[in-house]
């Protein structure tokens, strides 16, 4: 086991010593700063509530109802404003003061940037095996007194450790940036969220961890797929291309095929487990247990194929 952890340490060193890795982190930081700047510039979009928040919510509801009356048959405005009115009524009925926009809210809003981290992790995972072949360094790695299985899974584990480290960076940097730009709302204030059962007030830290936790599923599955493609074809460009295409187009594929019952067995129909929390299930009849089972089957299939190819393939001349 100590050899396994030493290999992981070595792989992480090789990942973080690259300039390209730090370019990824700088790009992510730049996106966060730019997002904070835009949000701060257009902060009138975020309501700020005072001690008279009850009257302010009632006035806001009145304005939303007037907008609904003015637009007539605009389904989007009717749906959006109706949900906001219901949310405001929940605050009033339960005597909960709305949380003003701050560091926690900004961090929660940035959960969408996990898709960028997935992209970075796909790039790392796609090259971690194929580059060893292309550079001719795989032979040097395999002459060590460790099995090919250990080598393969140390690389696989290193990719996900990189992804988790990057996600932690995203959360911490978002919190710091949000504190500087918007202020800090408190240690663990409550936030009202919409669930399948209706509105509910939850501690914002638990909601933040839940949202980021759900997004890890997509990161794991797409990176494992890219890792498998890289192992089979020894081509990082192909793995990155396929990974990015499926990362961006997975939901589109499901939408196109949604009229078929068998679409529920496709990976991308099950990759968003948060659909069961919100109640917006993509395909009727799907359950949380079903989606988890499909994900496990795909995950194991990707790993088994990677293992079979990597352990059975001969390592011949450099770059072959």
TrEMBL record:
Say which domain of life the source belongs to. Bacteria
Q: Which GO terms describe its molecular function?
A: ABC-type transporter activity
Keyword tags: Membrane, Transmembrane, Transmembrane helix
Question: Among its keywords, does the record have Protein biosynthesis?
Answer: no
Per the record, its GO cellular-component terms are: plasma membrane
What PANTHER family does the entry give?
INTEGRAL MEMBRANE PROTEIN-RELATED, MEMBRANE PROTEIN
Q: What is this protein called?
A: ABC transporter permease subunit
The organism named in the record is Fervidibacillus albus
């Amino acid at each position: 086991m100590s050899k396994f952890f030493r290999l992981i340490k070595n792989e992480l060193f090789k990942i973080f010593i690259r300039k390209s890795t730090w370019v990824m982190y700088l790009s992510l930081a730049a996106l966060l700063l730019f997002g904070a700047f835009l949000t701060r510039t257009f902060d009138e979009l975020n309501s700020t509530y005072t001690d008279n928040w009850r009257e302010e919510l009632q006035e806001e509801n009145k304005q939303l109802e007037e907008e609904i009356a003015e637009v007539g048959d605009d389904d989007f405005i009717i749906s959006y404003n109706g949900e906001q009115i219901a949310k405001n009524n929940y605050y009033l009925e339960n005597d909960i003061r709305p949380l003003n926009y701050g560091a926690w809210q900004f961090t929660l809003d940035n959960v969408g940037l996990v898709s960028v981290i997935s992209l970075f992790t796909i790039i790392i995972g796609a090259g971690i095996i194929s580059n060893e072949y292309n550079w001719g360094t795989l032979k040097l790695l395999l002459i060590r007194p460790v099995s090919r299985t250990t080598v393969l899974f140390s690389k696989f584990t290193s990719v996900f450790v990189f992804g988790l480290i990057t996600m932690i960076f995203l959360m911490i940097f978002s919190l710091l940036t949000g504190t500087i730009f918007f202020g800090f709302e408190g240690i663990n204030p409550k936030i009202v969220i919409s669930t399948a059962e209706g509105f509910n007030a939850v501690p914002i830290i638990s909601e933040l961890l839940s949202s980021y936790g759900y997004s890890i599923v997509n990161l794991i599955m797409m990176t494992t797929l890219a890792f498998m493609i890289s192992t089979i074809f020894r081509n990082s460009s192909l793995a990155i291309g396929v990974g990015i295409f499926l990362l961006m187009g997975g939901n589109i594929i499901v939408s196109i095929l949604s009229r078929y019952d068998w679409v529920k067995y496709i990976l991308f129909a099950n990759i968003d487990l948060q659909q069961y929390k919100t109640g917006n299930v993509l395909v009727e009849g799907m359950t949380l247990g079903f989606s988890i089972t499909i994900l496990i089957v795909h995950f194991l299939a990707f790993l088994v194929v990677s293992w079979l190819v990597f352990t059975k393939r001969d390592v011949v001349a450099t770059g072959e």
